[in-house]
Amino acid sequence: MLFCSPHPTVEIPETGLVQFVYASAGAYGDKPALIDGMTGRVLSYAQLWHGVQRVAGNMSKRGLKKGEVVGIYSPNLPEYALAFHGVVLAGGVVTTANPLYTVDELAYQLRDSGAKFLISVDALLEKALPAAQKAGVQEVFTIGESREATPFTELLTDAEPPDVPIHPRDDLVVLPYSSGTTGLPKGVMLTHYNLVANMVQVLGSGVNLQTDERGMGILPFYHIYGMLVILNLCLYKGVTIVTLPRFDLDLFLKTLQDYKITRANLVPPIILALAKQPIVDQYDLSSLKIIMSGAAPLGEEVARACSERLGCLVLQGYGLTETSPVTHVNPEDPARIKLASVGPPIANTECMIVDVGTGQPLGIREEGEVWIRGPQVMRGYLNNPEATAATITPDGWLRTGDIGYADEDGYFYIIDRVKELIKYKGLQVAPAELEAVLLSHPAVADAAVIPSPDEEAGEVPKAFVVLKSPATAEELMDYVAQRVAPFKKIRRIEFVEQIPKSPSGKILRRLLVQQERGRKAAE
Q: Taking the CB of residue 147, how many other CB atoms lie within 10 A of it?
């Protein structure tokens, strides 16, 4: 059965991303575009647009050619938009990296994407510089005062942007990294058309974003969720974005209050804090009208508790890095929100629920893998035709790796994952990556890593370990923690006699996941 969007078809302009986002920037003039929530520093729309053009011109002068890649390795701050859109206006492709990445993790992404330049911040140079050297990056720019790298301010001197012809459906604009349905992170090839399409689709699907709103820039801009719905969509609509470089509950609540934030795109762990933490009552959050949740499933009880406590709408949507990202969203109409659902497909989007075993399409309330087709679906994975073919069918369906169903109203519910990824506070953690680190420890004979349910984080990585010589759980967790970004750390370890595997040697992760869920439910 084919599930089509209930929303009217929208027309998608054939234009470059920056040309689309900044089409009305001139009209907004001195209106604040981005405010640094830590310092109060303001970047107006006029300053932002002029700065983007200068960055484009100076990048071009330094030899950036159309289609070449620039990495951004930075927390959220106003300059992120200058760097991101400046590179794109120069014809470049941006690959965004998690600021928590280790040297090796960053070097892998820079090398795999073929990054020519890297833009970072002073606080991250101790990782950025060695990673750039390992990956053969030509030049590193820093937003700050350090002289260890080229000051970002050199990209803000007067320079005319180059006139680069853009072919929206063919030319890549961003290369975020995703583990997809399994394995190590892969570059997701998204075009100008993909991102422009997704913004138009979202606005045509009951998301009533208004120019006079104030948005919360807490979702990381390196992640496709923050990148599209905040860094691009909010700027397109003339919204003022208040950025924070990291999540701290007190600081977050104070920012919501002091800047009278009206709309916050969040992830479930933050919504859980808003629903349950006593400190929330110390702040006036009456300006907050809408909370949009994504990146991981949001429980109905948590959504309702947060909505009732703050007196605002709480609704969730769904998407993937591979779909630019949005594919489903609840309309911003209290009468049409279903708290447990991710909503119906957005405009211009088709969905199927497919039997995991047979590949046959299923009907209403039948559970299977969610497949998606629409203009927001990626071109494929960079330099990885095998993974692309395993994810996108010949007729354009993207296999999400998520198990779900649709109800009688065409609203979708995500209940499980075929894919093996762990979602820790909305961030992707690949079990295979952690298993490889564990297996490098001399005391470990075999290992399997699974998601373990956790109320605060959603899921945490748990390892099942077979030892060949004595070692403690703390020793092994510390060993892994020294080699991966903090969000990937193994939080639980269980020692076992053997890891269940198929005759072909594949870890039977589903078996371990079922056992773990059963145990947690019993507790």
A: 7
- Confirm if 298 and 327 have CB atoms less than 8 A apart: no
How big is the chain, counted in residues?
Answer: 523
Domain extents in the chain: 422-522
Residue 318 confidence (pLDDT) above 80: yes
Helix (H) or strand (E) holding 151: strand 150-151
Under 8 Å between Cβ of 346 and 328: yes
The pair of three-digit structure tokens given for residue 68, joined into one six-digit string: 């070449």
pLDDT bin (cut points 50, 70, 90) of residue 504 is low
Residue 393: how many other CB atoms lie within 10 Å: 14
3-class SS at 208? coil
Mean of the pLDDT values across residues 442-450? 92
DSSP-based three-state secondary structure for 125: helix
Mean residue pLDDT across the chain? 95
Which phi-psi region, left, alpha or beta, contains residue 343 (left: φ > 0; alpha: ψ -120 to 50)? left
Half-sphere exposure of 149 (CA within 13 A, CB side): 28
DSSP-derived secondary structure for 243-265 = E-SS--HHHHHHHHHHTT--EEE
What is the C-alpha to C-alpha distance for residues 501 and 484, in angstroms, rounded to an integer?
A: 26
**Contact predicate 464/476, CB 8 Å:** no
Q: Which CATH number fits domain 422-522: 3.30.1330.200, 3.30.300.30, 2.40.50.140, 3.40.1190.10?
A: 3.30.300.30
What local confidence, expressed as pLDDT, does residue 131 receive?
98
- CB within 8 Å of 9: residues ≥ 6 apart: 347, 348
| Measured distance CA(119)–CA(228) in Å, rounded | 19
